[in-house]
Amino acid sequence: MSERQVLIVDDEFAIRDMLRMALELSGFRVLEAENIRDAYTLIIDERPDLVLLDWMLPGGSGLELLRRIKGNEVTRELPVIMLTAKTAEDNLVQGLDVGADDYITKPFAPRELMARITALLRRMPGGEHLEKLQVQDLVLDGDSRRIFLGERALEMGPTEFNLLQFFMSHPERAYSRSQLLDQVWGANVYVEERTVDVHIRRLRKALQTPDNDYSDLIQTVRGTGYRFSARGTAAR
């Protein structure tokens, strides 16, 4: 973890300075940018391991940069944590829908942010070994961190991958949003339960292809949360 590199994208020097000191004390190397243009150049040239991205930036919003990152095949797997002063749920969900892996609302404690960063990087390729799992034509290969539905490789973000891996490892049991946060995001990471719903929606979408639809494997359990189950589904 000590060799990991984080890019801070924020136009306020005081915030960048605070984040840089906290990151360096935790053993990270740090890159800084104060606008979208410089940030994207650093992403392409330096290939950071994670981006801390402010919502409001000169010359465009952080959401615009997020769309560029997630829309580029080379950078789409780059994990992004949004830094935002916006507290309206719709704004936070919008960032997650575009592809943000997490968000944290200002003001925040550096300790909480470090916990979020550590948990997110742990879920990235190169983390814990994951076994090969299969349910009908759905195959999750932990070694390569690839997922196949029939002959088709599915495109899926790191959080959705880990969520699916947990579900496939623990089928037929209902989990609350709080339990899923503890198991997939980490017990010491403070994330709103609404975040789970956004990633569940993304996961279901990823499990739909022109040839197959496995989205119904992720079942909503009213009053509880979610369950992974192949029972009752038609043979495919």
TrEMBL record:
The modification 4-aspartylphosphate is found at D54. This protein is a positive regulator for the phosphate regulon. Transcription of this operon is positively regulated by PhoB and PhoR when phosphate is limited. GO terms for biological process: phosphate ion transport; regulation of DNA-templated transcription. It is found in: Cytoplasm. One of its GO terms (cellular component) is cytosol. The keyword Transcription applies. This is Phosphate regulon transcriptional regulatory protein PhoB. Residues 5-121 form the Response regulatory domain. Residues 130-230 bind DNA. The keyword Translocase does not apply. It comes from the Bacteria. Residues 130-230 form the OmpR/PhoB-type domain.
